[in-house]
Amino acid sequence: MAIVISNVTELQAMELFPTLDYELGNNINAAATSLWNEDPGNPGTYFGFDPVGTSATKFTGELDGKGFTISNLFIGRPTESYVGLFGAINGATVKNVALATCDITGKSYTGALIGRVAGAATISDCSSAGTVDGVDGVGGLIGEMFSTATITDCSSSCTVTGTEYNTGGLVGDTGDLEVLLRCSATGNVHGTYDYVGGLIGYTSDGTIDKCYATGDVVGDADYVGGLVGSCGADATNCYAVGDVAG
């Protein structure tokens, strides 16, 4: 039986037991995270929420949001990689989770929902809105995926900024992608280096079907696209309508 999460403190406590299954019991206002974990070397600056799952200890359970919304989540960790509500997952299931007015800053592998996905993970019916800023592997929902993951019916309206490679409105970078189906990104995207896309910055394989992007895309280097910056996947029934500069 899944553990019911009813507040932001319980949401943070998922990191203590990353192999278990959880579900949201109600909407959660995470505004308190803006004053969590003060930087001891810089008083008045806060790191905020601590991402669930690390590169060493990935989240392997399940989170079912039950259609509830987590609002005002703050993560300010510009020198840390694996940043998002989940820092890193492996073979996990994340579904029916909505993030609203989030403010997420990280280094490599930064996304509002998940920093990095590994294993045969399943992500479905999830969304994000707010801002995501990072260095490389930066996405509005997921930073980087190197897994046989299936992502369906997900969306992001986040404004996304990446200062190095692989920046995307939904996902920054994908490798070994299985399926990306009925997904969208509507936020503006700016990438300083190569591989910048309205939906995905870089993808090497897999299937992208019935997806779209409508945000404006600006890339300061090479491989810039309204839908995908560089695409090695089989993309069908997809479109992009935002302005592209780069």
Key terms:
single chain, about 250 residues, mainly beta, Pectate Lyase C-like, 13-stranded parallel sheet, nine-stranded parallel sheet, about 0% helix, about 45% strand, globular, GLUG domain-containing protein, GLUG
Question: How does this structure look, described?
Answer:
Helix content is 2%, strand content 45%. With 246 residues, the protein is mainly β. It has one domain: Pectate Lyase C-like (3 Solenoid). Strands 3, 5, 6, 9, 13, 17, 18, 22, 23, 27, 28, 32 and 33 form a 13-stranded parallel sheet that branches. The chain has a 9-stranded parallel sheet with strand order 1-2-4-8-12-16-21-26-31. Strands 7-11-15-20-25-30 form a 6-stranded parallel sheet, with no helix packed on it. Helix 1 links the parallel strand 1 and strand 2. The chain is globular. InterPro entries: GLUG (IPR011493). This is GLUG domain-containing protein. It comes from marine sediment metagenome.
Low-confidence stretches: none
Provide mean pLDDT, rounded: 97
What does the largest sheet look like? 13 strands, parallel
Helix content: under 10%
Instruction: Provide the CATH top-level class.
Output: Mainly Beta
Distance between the termini: 50 Å
Number of domains: 1
The fraction of residues in strands falls at 35-45%
Secondary-structure arrangement, i.e. CATH architecture: 3 Solenoid
- The helix count comes to 1
Radius of gyration: 16 Å
Instruction: Give the CA-based shape.
Output: globular
Structural class: mainly beta
CATH topology-level fold name: Pectate Lyase C-like
Instruction: Give the beta-strand count.
Output: 33
Domain GLUG: 108-132, 195-218
Protein name: GLUG domain-containing protein
Organism: marine sediment metagenome
InterPro entries: GLUG (IPR011493)
